[in-house]
Design goal:
Layout (H helix, E strand, L loop, with lengths): L2 E6 L4 H12 L5 E5 L1 H10 L15 E4 L2 E4 L1 H12 L7 H24 L5 H29 L13 H13 L16 H12 L1 H11 L4
Parallel strand pairs: 1-2
Antiparallel strand pairs: 1-3, 3-4
Helix pairs in contact: 1-3, 1-6, 4-5, 4-6, 6-7
This protein binds glutathione.
The site of glutathione has 9 residues, from loops.
């Protein structure tokens, strides 16, 4: 099976969940990062370097033996099954992982929405509401789910899944200081989320990936 993942040249959760999952599972893939001319072509028409058109003119897109499909969750699940980080025959466990990926989508959408206003003052207010209201609320939901999975630092069962990778990278973005109005200490009160982050950072394959691809653990 020949796999190519198309995404932009950033370590964003939408792509990293799949990149790292494949890397952990030792599944060979081409990590195609769209930039330069490829980027302009994509922006204009949705055309990918393989000449196909991205179904929603968005990335990520996965190419499997010349057939493409999109959507972060669909891609992460497909690759998670290959790499052993998503169940193949356990519908309940799968649903528990799915709900976390969907929550990541909801959180991402709130962040995007809060940054959309062209008016700086209104954007500031939207970001304040995000930082003091929406994000803490969603972090608490996630914190509760971690707490309910007793005897494990992970979201589902006792082993790392794509749910943990997705939230780990999403949280890394949210506390990075790159988002206007979102303080870097936004996660300080969420003990279980911090434990999860630490645990993922301890994974030797995660460290190796980060070091190899970005030259540091980000
Ligand atoms: N629902 C989609 C959302 C994907 C999405 O919003 N992708 C953004 C980048 S993070 C995108 O491609 N935007 C179009 C663009 O930047 O031209 C998914 O789950 O993959």
């Amino acid at each position: 099976m020949k796999i190519t993942l198309y995404y932009f040249k950033i370590p964003f959760w939408r792509a990293e969940v799949t990149r790292i999952s494949l890397f952990i599972g030792d599944i060979p893939f081409q990590d195609y990062r769209i930039e330069g001319d490829d980027y302009h072509k994509f922006k204009k028409s949705g055309e990918l370097p393989n000449k196909k058109i991205a179904p929603f003119k968005q990335l990520p897109v996965l190419d499997v033996d010349g057939e493409i499909f999109a959507q972060t969750g669909a891609i992460a699940r497909f690759c998670g099954k290959l790499s052993g980080l998503y169940p193949k025959n356990d519908d309940y466990k799968s649903a528990l992982i799915d709900q976390i990926i969907e929550a990541a989508q909801d959180i991402n959408f709130l962040v995007t929405l809060s940054g959309r206003d062209k008016d700086e003052e209104r954007k500031k207010i939207a970001r304040k509401i995000l930082a003091t209201n929406h994000l803490p609320k969603w972090f608490q939901f996630l914190e509760n789910l971690l707490q309910q999975n007793t005897n494990s630092v992970y979201f589902v069962g006792n082993e790392l899944t794509i749910a943990d990778l997705a939230i780990w990278r999403l949280l890394g973005w949210l506390k990075s200081g790159l988002l206007d109005g979102i303080p870097t200490n936004i996660l300080d009160n969420f003990e279980n989320l911090n434990k999860l982050r630490e645990e993922v950072y301890k994974n030797p394959k995660v460290i190796k990936w980060m070091d190899q691809v970005y030259g540091k653990v980000i």
